[in-house]
Amino acid sequence: AEAWMQQHAYPFEHLSSEALQRIEPGLNHKQVNSGWLTATIGQTRNPRLVRALQADLVKLGVDIKQQTRADSFISENGAVKGVKTDKGSFYADQVIVAGGAWSTRLLEKWLKAPKIAPVKGQMIVFKAEPGVVSHIVLSKGRYVIPRKDGHVVLGSTLEFDAFDKSTSEAVLEELKLEAYRIIPALKNYPVEKQWAGLRPGSIDGIPYIGEHPELKNLYVNAGHFRNGVVIGLASCQLLVNQLLDEEPIVDASPYWLTEERMVSDSSQIDLRKAI
User: Fold this and answer.
1) What are phi and psi of 78, to 5 degrees?
2) What CA–CA distances, in Å, run from 232 to 106, 227, 228, 250?
């Protein structure tokens, strides 16, 4: 981690256990020998972000069709012309597949699809009080995220269960023990909620952003794994650059849908070795 931060000129401080304890008194001092403090990590409550984004798009005049299933593409002479859905056909000069973990499933019936598969993550949130935790804490693959209202999020697992979004008691106990390992005071507060989400994992850790090579004017923006919120804005800007034939904000070629990054059968995708 330190080598990466130095390479990318990422601001950080290397602190002793005692120094970390001073800035985050709730840390389990038996578990912490040293660590890094970074001042530039932030957080957002993604459900609120999505609601705000939806409201903003509606104000701009975007017509959002919710609970509408895409069934097939409408194409002519090797170019996409629209999408057939369970609520009628919609026509457009350009079509974008941004279906998250379901993107490959949407495409594979008609075309080669990007190597994207769901990776389940279970999380819990404690109903704690403000001040129990004051910093985002990363430890041994787990993270603790304090909210302003005192809620504390603990996550997350990596599970390869296809499209199963169920939660389990075993994972609940595992996550609680991890929370107590990092912040012992969380033992004093109840778990308010447990949930699971499906990350769109790509085979090489790089999202797919660009035109599909088999059907002109069909574009994909998917496969961001854990970083959809983090790099979502830049991904959209890079896609817009391609849609409008503009100078891209970065080299777009690493994100294109190449032969090596696509598959005809999603059952062949195994992310266990890639992640």
Assistant:
1) 75, 15
2) 20, 8, 5, 14
Q: Determine the Cα–Cα distance for residues 172 and 193; give it in Å rounded to an integer.
A: 10
* Angle at the Cα of 108 from the Cα atoms of 86 and 199, rounded to 5 degrees: 85
> Pairing mode, if any, of strands 191-202 and 79-85?
unpaired
Kind of pairing, strands 34-37 and 13-16? antiparallel
The contacts of residue 221 (CB under 8 Å, 6+ apart) are 96, 97, 98, 207, 208, 209, 235, 236, 239
Dump pLDDT digits (tens) for 226-253. Answer: 999 999 999 999 999 999 999 999 999 9
Residue 177 tokens, joined: 């023990």
Contact of 21 with 137, CB cutoff 8 Å: no
Provide the pairing of β-strand 88-91 with 95-97. unpaired
Measured distance CA(12)–CA(71) in Å, rounded: 48
The pLDDT, as a whole number, for residue 266 is 82
- The answer to whether the bond into 156 is cis (omega within 30° of 0) is yes
Query: Whole-angstrom distance between the N-terminal and C-terminal Cα of the chain?
Result: 17
pLDDT tens, 180-207? Answer: 999 999 999 999 999 999 999 999 999 9
CB < 8 Å & 24+ apart, contacts of 20-27: 23/134, 23/135, 24/133, 24/134, 24/135, 24/137, 26/132, 26/133, 26/183, 26/184, 26/185, 27/137, 27/182, 27/183
Q: Could you tell me if 15 and 34 are in contact, meaning their C-beta atoms sit under 8 angstroms apart?
A: yes
Tokens of 141: 């693959």
145 vs 155: CA distance, rounded Å: 9
The residue type at 34: S
Q: How far apart are the C-alpha atoms of 88 and 177, rounded to whole Å? A: 50
How far is residue 185 CA from its own chain's centroid? 29
